[in-house]
Amino acid sequence: MVSDVTNAPAIASTAAPADGLRLAVDLGGLAMKNPLTVASGTFASGREYAALWQGTLGGGSPAPPLSLLGALTTKGVSARPWEGNVGVRIAESASGILNSIGLQNPGVEAFCSGDLAWLAAQDVPVIVNVSGHSVEEYCAVVERLEREKAVSAYELNISCPNVDCGGMAFGTSPAAAERVTRACREATARPLVVKLTPNVTDVTEIARACEAGGADALSLINTVAGMAIDARARRPVFDRVVAGLSGPAVKPVALYAVHRVSRAVGLPLLGMGGVATVEDVVEFLLAGATAVAVGTWNFHDPLALPHLLEGLEAWCEEQGVADVHELIGGLR
Ligand SMILES: Cc1cc2nc3c(=O)[nH]c(=O)nc-3n(C[C@H](O)[C@H](O)[C@H](O)COP(=O)(O)O)c2cc1C
Hints:
This protein is an alpha/beta fold. Helix content is about 30%, strand content about 20%. Helix 6 crosses helix 7.
Protein backbone atom coordinates (compact mmCIF):
# COMPACT_ATOMS: atom_id res chain seq x y z
CA MET A 1 0.00 0.00 0.00
CA VAL A 2 1.69 3.13 -1.22
CA SER A 3 1.64 6.32 0.78
CA ASP A 4 -0.04 9.33 -0.78
CA VAL A 5 0.35 12.83 0.63
CA THR A 6 -0.84 14.70 -2.42
CA ASN A 7 -4.04 16.75 -2.74
CA ALA A 8 -3.80 17.88 0.84
CA PRO A 9 -6.82 19.78 2.13
CA ALA A 10 -6.12 22.93 4.16
CA ILE A 11 -6.53 22.65 7.93
CA ALA A 12 -8.69 25.77 7.91
CA SER A 13 -11.34 24.12 5.74
CA THR A 14 -11.47 20.97 7.85
CA ALA A 15 -11.52 22.67 11.26
CA ALA A 16 -15.07 24.05 10.96
CA PRO A 17 -17.92 22.09 9.34
CA ALA A 18 -19.70 23.58 6.34
CA ASP A 19 -22.40 26.11 7.22
CA GLY A 20 -25.20 24.61 9.28
CA LEU A 21 -23.93 21.05 9.03
CA ARG A 22 -24.01 19.25 12.37
CA LEU A 23 -21.35 16.58 12.76
CA ALA A 24 -21.13 16.33 16.57
CA VAL A 25 -21.90 12.94 18.15
CA ASP A 26 -21.98 11.43 21.64
CA LEU A 27 -20.24 8.10 21.95
CA GLY A 28 -21.48 6.75 25.29
CA GLY A 29 -20.74 10.02 27.08
CA LEU A 30 -17.73 10.99 25.00
CA ALA A 31 -18.52 14.24 23.17
CA MET A 32 -16.95 14.21 19.70
CA LYS A 33 -17.18 17.26 17.43
CA ASN A 34 -17.32 14.94 14.44
CA PRO A 35 -17.68 11.13 14.15
CA LEU A 36 -14.11 10.42 13.03
CA THR A 37 -11.29 8.91 15.06
CA VAL A 38 -8.29 6.69 14.37
CA ALA A 39 -8.10 2.96 15.03
CA SER A 40 -5.80 1.95 17.87
CA GLY A 41 -2.29 0.97 16.87
CA THR A 42 -2.33 2.61 13.46
CA PHE A 43 -1.63 6.16 14.63
CA ALA A 44 0.64 5.63 17.67
CA SER A 45 -0.19 8.65 19.87
CA GLY A 46 -0.33 10.93 16.87
CA ARG A 47 2.97 12.78 17.23
CA GLU A 48 4.33 11.77 13.84
CA TYR A 49 1.02 12.44 12.09
CA ALA A 50 0.70 15.82 13.82
CA ALA A 51 4.10 16.86 12.49
CA LEU A 52 3.23 15.64 9.01
CA TRP A 53 -0.21 17.28 9.01
CA GLN A 54 1.23 20.54 10.28
CA GLY A 55 3.92 20.53 7.61
CA THR A 56 1.64 19.45 4.77
CA LEU A 57 -1.67 21.09 5.60
CA GLY A 58 -0.26 24.31 7.01
CA GLY A 59 -3.02 26.76 6.31
CA GLY A 60 -1.68 29.16 8.92
CA SER A 61 -4.11 27.67 11.44
CA PRO A 62 -3.05 28.24 15.06
CA ALA A 63 -5.01 25.13 16.16
CA PRO A 64 -3.01 21.95 16.91
CA PRO A 65 -3.51 19.76 13.81
CA LEU A 66 -4.93 16.78 15.70
CA SER A 67 -7.75 18.95 17.04
CA LEU A 68 -9.65 18.36 13.81
CA LEU A 69 -10.32 14.76 14.94
CA GLY A 70 -13.49 13.85 16.80
CA ALA A 71 -11.18 11.92 19.15
CA LEU A 72 -7.74 10.35 19.09
CA THR A 73 -7.43 6.67 20.01
CA THR A 74 -4.00 5.64 21.29
CA LYS A 75 -1.99 2.47 20.76
CA GLY A 76 -2.71 -0.20 23.39
CA VAL A 77 -1.29 0.55 26.84
CA SER A 78 -0.54 -2.17 29.41
CA ALA A 79 0.32 -2.14 33.10
CA ARG A 80 3.97 -2.98 32.46
CA PRO A 81 6.08 -2.65 29.28
CA TRP A 82 5.36 -5.27 26.60
CA GLU A 83 8.16 -6.10 24.19
CA GLY A 84 6.09 -7.20 21.23
CA ASN A 85 6.65 -10.11 18.88
CA VAL A 86 9.88 -11.15 17.16
CA GLY A 87 10.18 -11.86 13.45
CA VAL A 88 8.10 -10.41 10.64
CA ARG A 89 5.50 -8.01 12.03
CA ILE A 90 3.63 -6.80 8.97
CA ALA A 91 2.99 -8.48 5.60
CA GLU A 92 0.82 -7.25 2.76
CA SER A 93 -2.14 -9.26 1.51
CA ALA A 94 -4.75 -8.55 -1.14
CA SER A 95 -6.44 -5.27 -0.16
CA GLY A 96 -5.01 -5.32 3.31
CA ILE A 97 -2.20 -6.19 5.69
CA LEU A 98 -1.51 -8.87 8.26
CA ASN A 99 0.14 -7.74 11.48
CA SER A 100 1.74 -9.47 14.39
CA ILE A 101 3.02 -6.55 16.47
CA GLY A 102 2.24 -8.13 19.85
CA LEU A 103 0.86 -4.94 21.43
CA GLN A 104 4.34 -3.59 22.05
CA ASN A 105 4.24 -0.56 24.34
CA PRO A 106 6.35 1.02 27.10
CA GLY A 107 3.75 0.50 29.87
CA VAL A 108 1.35 2.91 31.54
CA GLU A 109 3.90 4.88 33.56
CA ALA A 110 6.04 5.74 30.54
CA PHE A 111 2.86 6.45 28.57
CA CYS A 112 1.68 8.96 31.19
CA SER A 113 4.96 10.85 31.37
CA GLY A 114 5.57 10.70 27.62
CA ASP A 115 2.83 10.55 25.01
CA LEU A 116 -0.07 11.41 27.33
CA ALA A 117 1.68 14.53 28.63
CA TRP A 118 2.15 15.59 25.00
CA LEU A 119 -1.45 14.72 24.09
CA ALA A 120 -2.74 16.90 26.94
CA ALA A 121 -1.78 19.96 24.89
CA GLN A 122 -3.35 18.80 21.60
CA ASP A 123 -6.94 19.91 22.22
CA VAL A 124 -8.44 16.57 21.20
CA PRO A 125 -10.39 14.05 23.31
CA VAL A 126 -8.12 11.09 24.05
CA ILE A 127 -9.41 7.51 24.09
CA VAL A 128 -6.78 5.29 25.69
CA ASN A 129 -6.76 1.73 24.34
CA VAL A 130 -6.11 -0.66 27.25
CA SER A 131 -4.45 -4.10 27.05
CA GLY A 132 -4.01 -6.77 29.73
CA HIS A 133 -3.34 -10.44 30.33
CA SER A 134 -5.65 -10.62 33.34
CA VAL A 135 -8.58 -8.67 34.76
CA GLU A 136 -6.19 -7.23 37.34
CA GLU A 137 -3.86 -5.93 34.64
CA TYR A 138 -6.68 -4.14 32.79
CA CYS A 139 -7.84 -2.59 36.07
CA ALA A 140 -4.31 -1.52 36.99
CA VAL A 141 -4.06 0.48 33.76
CA VAL A 142 -7.46 2.12 34.23
CA GLU A 143 -6.76 2.90 37.90
CA ARG A 144 -3.44 4.55 37.04
CA LEU A 145 -5.01 6.57 34.21
CA GLU A 146 -7.82 7.80 36.49
CA ARG A 147 -5.20 10.19 37.92
CA GLU A 148 -4.66 11.76 34.49
CA LYS A 149 -6.92 14.63 33.37
CA ALA A 150 -5.92 14.19 29.72
CA VAL A 151 -7.85 10.91 29.39
CA SER A 152 -11.40 11.31 28.05
CA ALA A 153 -12.39 7.64 27.63
CA TYR A 154 -11.11 4.07 27.67
CA GLU A 155 -11.28 1.44 24.96
CA LEU A 156 -10.69 -2.07 26.32
CA ASN A 157 -8.96 -4.31 23.81
CA ILE A 158 -10.43 -7.65 24.86
CA SER A 159 -8.69 -9.52 22.04
CA CYS A 160 -5.72 -10.06 24.41
CA PRO A 161 -5.00 -13.60 25.66
CA ASN A 162 -6.26 -14.26 29.20
CA VAL A 163 -3.48 -16.03 31.12
CA ASP A 164 -5.98 -17.22 33.72
CA CYS A 165 -7.91 -19.12 31.02
CA GLY A 166 -5.15 -20.86 29.10
CA GLY A 167 -4.49 -17.91 26.80
CA MET A 168 -7.98 -17.76 25.30
CA ALA A 169 -8.85 -14.17 24.31
CA PHE A 170 -11.21 -12.40 26.76
CA GLY A 171 -13.35 -11.35 23.82
CA THR A 172 -14.15 -14.92 22.79
CA SER A 173 -15.99 -15.80 26.00
CA PRO A 174 -19.14 -13.95 27.12
CA ALA A 175 -18.29 -14.62 30.78
CA ALA A 176 -14.71 -13.34 30.51
CA ALA A 177 -15.80 -10.32 28.45
CA GLU A 178 -18.43 -9.41 31.02
CA ARG A 179 -16.01 -9.92 33.92
CA VAL A 180 -13.30 -7.62 32.57
CA THR A 181 -15.88 -5.01 31.54
CA ARG A 182 -17.50 -5.02 34.97
CA ALA A 183 -14.17 -4.78 36.81
CA CYS A 184 -13.09 -1.78 34.72
CA ARG A 185 -16.57 -0.25 35.09
CA GLU A 186 -16.08 -0.30 38.84
CA ALA A 187 -12.75 1.49 38.40
CA THR A 188 -14.01 4.45 36.37
CA ALA A 189 -16.96 6.74 35.71
CA ARG A 190 -15.42 7.84 32.40
CA PRO A 191 -16.87 6.56 29.12
CA LEU A 192 -15.94 2.89 28.77
CA VAL A 193 -15.79 1.47 25.26
CA VAL A 194 -15.21 -2.26 24.84
CA LYS A 195 -13.64 -3.42 21.58
CA LEU A 196 -14.95 -6.65 20.11
CA THR A 197 -13.07 -9.27 18.14
CA PRO A 198 -14.69 -10.69 15.01
CA ASN A 199 -13.01 -14.05 15.66
CA VAL A 200 -16.04 -15.58 17.36
CA THR A 201 -19.07 -17.57 16.28
CA ASP A 202 -21.62 -14.97 17.40
CA VAL A 203 -20.38 -11.44 18.05
CA THR A 204 -23.79 -10.35 19.39
CA GLU A 205 -23.41 -12.73 22.33
CA ILE A 206 -20.18 -11.01 23.38
CA ALA A 207 -21.72 -7.58 22.74
CA ARG A 208 -24.61 -8.36 25.09
CA ALA A 209 -22.17 -9.59 27.75
CA CYS A 210 -20.22 -6.32 27.58
CA GLU A 211 -23.46 -4.35 27.81
CA ALA A 212 -24.40 -6.36 30.91
CA GLY A 213 -20.96 -5.64 32.36
CA GLY A 214 -21.58 -1.90 32.15
CA ALA A 215 -19.95 -0.77 28.88
CA ASP A 216 -21.02 2.67 27.65
CA ALA A 217 -20.22 1.87 24.02
CA LEU A 218 -18.73 -0.91 21.90
CA SER A 219 -16.13 -0.69 19.16
CA LEU A 220 -15.72 -3.20 16.37
CA ILE A 221 -14.03 -4.85 14.66
CA ASN A 222 -10.53 -5.77 15.76
CA THR A 223 -8.42 -7.64 13.22
CA VAL A 224 -9.52 -10.90 11.59
CA ALA A 225 -7.34 -13.95 12.32
CA GLY A 226 -5.31 -15.08 9.33
CA MET A 227 -1.91 -16.36 8.24
CA ALA A 228 0.59 -16.01 5.43
CA ILE A 229 2.91 -18.66 4.01
CA ASP A 230 6.28 -18.20 2.33
CA ALA A 231 5.94 -20.80 -0.44
CA ARG A 232 9.66 -21.06 -1.27
CA ALA A 233 10.68 -21.45 2.36
CA ARG A 234 7.59 -23.62 2.97
CA ARG A 235 7.18 -21.86 6.27
CA PRO A 236 4.66 -19.52 7.90
CA VAL A 237 5.64 -15.88 7.40
CA PHE A 238 4.91 -15.01 11.04
CA ASP A 239 6.75 -16.69 13.93
CA ARG A 240 3.46 -17.15 15.78
CA VAL A 241 1.76 -18.36 12.58
CA VAL A 242 -1.42 -16.35 13.24
CA ALA A 243 -1.62 -12.64 12.43
CA GLY A 244 -4.38 -10.02 12.26
CA LEU A 245 -5.87 -9.04 8.91
CA SER A 246 -6.99 -5.42 8.44
CA GLY A 247 -7.62 -2.89 5.68
CA PRO A 248 -10.23 -2.84 2.89
CA ALA A 249 -10.23 -6.66 2.75
CA VAL A 250 -12.11 -6.83 6.06
CA LYS A 251 -14.71 -4.10 5.43
CA PRO A 252 -17.64 -6.39 4.53
CA VAL A 253 -16.98 -8.47 7.67
CA ALA A 254 -16.85 -5.33 9.79
CA LEU A 255 -19.99 -3.79 8.30
CA TYR A 256 -21.97 -6.94 8.91
CA ALA A 257 -20.73 -7.14 12.51
CA VAL A 258 -21.72 -3.50 13.15
CA HIS A 259 -25.12 -4.09 11.55
CA ARG A 260 -25.82 -7.15 13.69
CA VAL A 261 -24.51 -5.68 16.96
CA SER A 262 -26.46 -2.44 16.45
CA ARG A 263 -29.63 -4.53 16.47
CA ALA A 264 -28.58 -6.64 19.44
CA VAL A 265 -27.67 -3.97 22.01
CA GLY A 266 -28.74 -0.48 22.95
CA LEU A 267 -25.22 0.94 23.08
CA PRO A 268 -23.62 3.38 20.65
CA LEU A 269 -21.01 1.81 18.39
CA LEU A 270 -17.62 2.87 17.08
CA GLY A 271 -17.33 1.13 13.71
CA MET A 272 -14.08 0.25 12.00
CA GLY A 273 -12.48 -2.19 9.61
CA GLY A 274 -11.22 -1.27 6.17
CA VAL A 275 -12.45 2.31 6.06
CA ALA A 276 -10.75 4.12 3.17
CA THR A 277 -13.31 6.37 1.49
CA VAL A 278 -16.09 8.75 2.46
CA GLU A 279 -18.62 6.20 1.24
CA ASP A 280 -17.09 3.69 3.66
CA VAL A 281 -17.61 6.13 6.53
CA VAL A 282 -21.22 6.68 5.51
CA GLU A 283 -21.83 2.93 5.14
CA PHE A 284 -20.65 2.32 8.73
CA LEU A 285 -22.93 5.13 9.97
CA LEU A 286 -25.88 3.67 8.06
CA ALA A 287 -25.11 0.21 9.49
CA GLY A 288 -25.52 1.67 12.97
CA ALA A 289 -22.19 3.17 14.01
CA THR A 290 -22.28 6.49 15.87
CA ALA A 291 -18.59 7.10 15.13
CA VAL A 292 -16.07 5.60 12.73
CA ALA A 293 -12.36 4.83 13.08
CA VAL A 294 -9.79 4.72 10.32
CA GLY A 295 -6.88 2.32 10.79
CA THR A 296 -4.77 0.66 8.13
CA TRP A 297 -5.67 3.31 5.56
CA ASN A 298 -3.52 5.79 7.51
CA PHE A 299 -0.52 3.83 6.25
CA HIS A 300 -1.65 4.24 2.65
CA ASP A 301 -2.64 7.89 3.02
CA PRO A 302 -1.22 9.59 6.12
CA LEU A 303 -3.64 12.46 5.43
CA ALA A 304 -6.63 10.09 5.34
CA LEU A 305 -8.40 11.72 8.27
CA PRO A 306 -8.28 15.33 6.99
CA HIS A 307 -9.28 14.02 3.56
CA LEU A 308 -12.21 12.03 4.95
CA LEU A 309 -13.46 14.84 7.16
CA GLU A 310 -13.48 17.25 4.27
CA GLY A 311 -15.08 14.57 2.07
CA LEU A 312 -17.78 13.83 4.65
CA GLU A 313 -18.75 17.48 4.79
CA ALA A 314 -18.94 17.64 0.98
CA TRP A 315 -20.91 14.38 0.83
CA CYS A 316 -23.47 15.61 3.37
CA GLU A 317 -23.87 18.88 1.53
CA GLU A 318 -24.32 17.11 -1.81
CA GLN A 319 -26.85 14.67 -0.30
CA GLY A 320 -28.78 17.34 1.59
CA VAL A 321 -27.83 15.90 4.99
CA ALA A 322 -27.94 18.62 7.67
CA ASP A 323 -27.08 16.46 10.69
CA VAL A 324 -24.95 13.32 10.76
CA HIS A 325 -27.61 11.69 12.97
CA GLU A 326 -29.75 11.42 9.83
CA LEU A 327 -27.25 8.79 8.69
CA ILE A 328 -26.62 6.89 11.94
CA GLY A 329 -28.58 3.63 11.79
CA GLY A 330 -30.37 5.00 8.72
CA LEU A 331 -30.18 1.82 6.66
CA ARG A 332 -33.41 1.37 4.70
C1 LIG B 1 -0.42 -2.35 13.00
C2 LIG B 1 -1.68 -2.49 13.79
C3 LIG B 1 -1.66 -2.36 15.18
C4 LIG B 1 -2.83 -2.47 15.93
N1 LIG B 1 -2.79 -2.33 17.29
C5 LIG B 1 -3.95 -2.38 18.02
C6 LIG B 1 -3.93 -2.13 19.43
O1 LIG B 1 -2.90 -1.80 20.03
N2 LIG B 1 -5.11 -2.26 20.09
C7 LIG B 1 -6.30 -2.56 19.45
O2 LIG B 1 -7.35 -2.65 20.10
N3 LIG B 1 -6.34 -2.76 18.11
C8 LIG B 1 -5.19 -2.66 17.39
N4 LIG B 1 -5.24 -2.84 16.02
C9 LIG B 1 -6.55 -3.08 15.34
C10 LIG B 1 -7.12 -1.77 14.75
O3 LIG B 1 -7.33 -0.81 15.75
C11 LIG B 1 -8.45 -2.03 13.99
O4 LIG B 1 -9.38 -2.57 14.88
C12 LIG B 1 -8.28 -2.99 12.83
O5 LIG B 1 -7.05 -2.81 12.18
C13 LIG B 1 -9.40 -2.84 11.77
O6 LIG B 1 -9.42 -1.52 11.23
P1 LIG B 1 -8.67 -1.13 9.85
O7 LIG B 1 -9.03 -2.17 8.84
O8 LIG B 1 -9.17 0.24 9.51
O9 LIG B 1 -7.20 -1.13 10.16
C14 LIG B 1 -4.07 -2.73 15.25
C15 LIG B 1 -4.09 -2.85 13.86
C16 LIG B 1 -2.92 -2.71 13.13
C17 LIG B 1 -2.98 -2.81 11.62
